[in-house]
Amino acid sequence: MSPNAKAPEINLYKNDLPDGLVFQDAIAVDSEAMGLNPYRDRLCVVQLSGGDGVCHLVQIAPGQTEAPNLKRLMEDEGVVKIFHYARFDVMILKYALGIRTNPVFCTKIASKLARTYTDKHGYKDVCRELAGVEISKEQQSSDWGHDTLSEEQLMYAATDVLYLHTVREKLIEMLAREGRTELAQACFDFLHTRTDLDLAGWPEVDIFAHK
User: Fold this and answer.
1) How far is CA 29 from CA 42, 48, 124, in A?
2) Which domains are seen in the chain, by residue range?
3) Which residue of 5, 30, 128, 175 sits 20 to 30 Å from the alpha carbon of 108, by its own alpha carbon?
4) End-to-end C-alpha distance for the chain, whole angstroms
């Protein structure tokens, strides 16, 4: 986070979002897990922001398979879920909690389609250029399975969703300018098929390839 940025408000919950929490038409979402293999590495944290500077963090317990309020929100067709690299988050939410997230906007896919002048499409890179903020990824590989998260982890988790609304708006403008809005939407719509393939055993195989 930039040195002069205002510290976010962080609300931490256990197992699920609280009853009665309402979001508007779009929410930023990210997740933290023990690793990148959903069969081995459990989902630990899901963080969300409505774009108002407030971050809601849900800690997922070992062995937990349901989070009804989170599921209801993530499957609400009236609320767009904004991710950076949605492929992983959509997959692990599906595998761990049975959530089929929809609709989705992936800022990494949008960046690759719109920002063809660069090969830097990481969250840190798009935040620097499109939101004008510097963020730290230092806590990315920390132990997210610990029952008590550190202040540094909480701040990292919040930072990962605080700027996605701004990034999305800039990318929407760029996609429209370059005539790639419909192509981006088709990619977002394909994410559930892509993650179904990942979970079914074809994570790296291009089934459209000739060979």
Assistant:
1) 17, 5, 16
2) 9-200 (3.30.420.10)
3) 5
4) 45
DSSP 58: E
Q: What is the pLDDT of residues 155-179, one digit of tens each?
A: 999 999 999 999 999 999 999 999 9
Alpha-carbon gap, residue 54 to 49, rounded angstroms: 6
Which residue type sits at 154? Answer: L
pTM for this model (two decimals)? 0.94
Strand pairing report for 43-49 and 26-33: antiparallel
